[in-house]
Amino acid sequence: MVEKTPFSFKTLSALIGLIILIMISLQIGVLGTANINDSVFTISRLPRTIAVLLTGAGLAVAGMVIQLIVHNRFVEPNTTGTGEGAAIGLLLTVLLFPAAPLIVRMGFAALCAMLSLLIFLTLAKRLPPTDPLLLPLVGMIYAGILQSIMAFIGYETDLLQWLSVWLNGDFSAVLKGRYEFLWGCAIVLVILYWLADRLTIVGMGESSSQSLGLNYRQLVFCAILLIALISAFITATVGNIAFLGLVVPNLIRRICGDNLRHALPWIAWTGASLLLICDILARIVSFPYEIPVSLIFGIFGGSLFLYLLMRPSR
Fold it and tell me: What is one term from the GO cellular component aspect held by the record (predicted)?
């Protein structure tokens, strides 16, 4: 178990490791380090690194919260249709209200993400609780249906190429002025940490929550809203990154357990660190060109997802 002291050697090591990754990320680019000026650093590299950290932490924690409220460790935003719902919302605002400001697009994306997650939860209630692998399979089918709807809309409106770029998580276009909404993920993470003890009890089930005096439905709705906001912020800024919200919570829960207050900082750190490592690799594998970070993480995350499906914990 990770020590529960406020500040331990493991905490210090984690901070130092993250700082090293940040320094490496800030040094990597087409121009190298000798030919950059302050504007390149502040407009491109620093915003990109911050965006990666916020995205990784947000997706990882969102995955943990979804797993708690559906009582299944094989689900994440991209196997519950949440990310796809946010993408559909953004696509519809682009088509119907092309002049709408970004905050309106974010709001509509969050609304569609929340609606999509509510539909998934409705489907989940109809499944037998004895088979934990059935729920993620249904979620993947459900997400696939939403992706097909997006592809059809994109085909009919000549937006397929734009949509394909959008759905592949990529930080190459992240610049100053185009990532600031991701700070909303940090605000949501603070709120989730404040609710951590209550959400941990929610993970024990409705009857246990009500017996301890909690409003189960209200807390679940609040969690759905916060997850939808994270999905909207990330989908609108960098696109879709699969498996991150699945892999990280399962790794950390094996060490920290299901106590969200204790596990949340480590989940956020692991998500941010892993995504930053993948983003660094995405920049150097085919240098001076880049590949989408979702492809790098998809290899690692997909492999671990299969392992988790084949060998569920007891």
Answer: plasma membrane
Distances from the Cα of 37 to the Cα of 45, 73, 93, 194, angstroms: 11, 45, 37, 40
- For 187-245, write each residue's pLDDT tens digit: 999 999 999 999 999 988 888 888 888 899 899 999 999 999 998 899 888 888 888 99
Please state the separation of Cα 32 from the chain's center in Å: 30
Domains of the chain: 59-310 (1.10.3470.10)
pLDDT tens per residue, range 162-185 = 777 667 788 887 888 778 889 999
